[in-house]
Structure prediction request, 371 residues.
Amino acid sequence: MAEDKPMSESEQQQLLKLRDRIDAIDADIGRLISERAQCAQDVAEVKKAHSDGDIVYYRPEREAQVLRKAMDRNKGPLDDEEMARLFREIMSACLALEQPIKVAFLGPEGTFTEQAALKHFGHSAVSIPMSAIDEVFREVEAGAANYGVVPVENSTEGVVNHTLDNFMDSGLKICGEVELRIHQHLMVSDITKTENITRIYSHSQSLAQCRKWLDAHYPNAERIAVNSNAEAAKRVKGEWNAAAIAGEMAADRYDLKKLAEKIEDQPDNSTRFLIIGTEEVPPSGCDKSSVVIAMHNEPGALHNLLEPFHRHNVDLTRVETRPSRSGNWNYVFFIDFEGHITDDNIAAAMKEIGEKASDIKVLGAYPKAVL
Prediction:
């Protein structure tokens, strides 16, 4: 193996100058972060002095605007997503000085939903794992958590119906969204005999997302669906003939070895998560809105629903149909579209639809996913 070439005196001097420059920049960064943190504390004091009730510290629309500006200003060499991630963590730490945010998520620890929660709120938020989607809703409704994070759709396997069904009876609002690239890995524990794997644990959606890879590499292994990928990771810790399919966070959390990486059938596999809370979010300048609409069961109902959106130039991004709980063969439509519910063209379209619909429920207007 070749040895490193010794540096000349001039090269050593150049390196020392660069290190001194880095030290000076680090000092400036530390000072400015402290100044920002002090401003956050000052904001909290102003809010307390002028509030007669509950104080809202976290403003989704404001955070989205800050992240977008950070990305717009970025000239590299860090990419926009990395720059936004750094600013997210700074904001998370500063917000914790005002009031730590409690975030319920579909657990247990190590799930993709926890990863989405950390991506959106940063590591200074207090994350609370829940065992089911409806428990996340209840935790936020009860005030035990400020916000919740739940999966709503996957690019490969489609919508998460259980999340949509919870909105039917809940008064919570959608306050934001997170898009997460999903990479699935085959994992084993230190006791696994890799040549004798006869069962593979994972969430049903993850098993479906890796169907072709499993058919090719483990056609005879039993595929066992469990409540979450994190639960799958925990199970293989005690089984010598089992493996799990889960994400990077589960491997780190449960000390598992990745036997095969990125085994998802679709390389652009991603999942969208919703942030749920109690307050309505003002416009951020780049927003989405979600509604659920019940139409009368009559000929042309779908046309009557969609035509005003088209005429008022509202860009629909998703339309899902779910059975209504009011009677057999009645359906409701979950619709996402570009823009804020208060935009003039959207308000005009919703007014027309309201004259034809049997019921309309605005689930929320919120900033589009920044990262």
Notes: Residues 9-49 form the longest helix (41 residues).
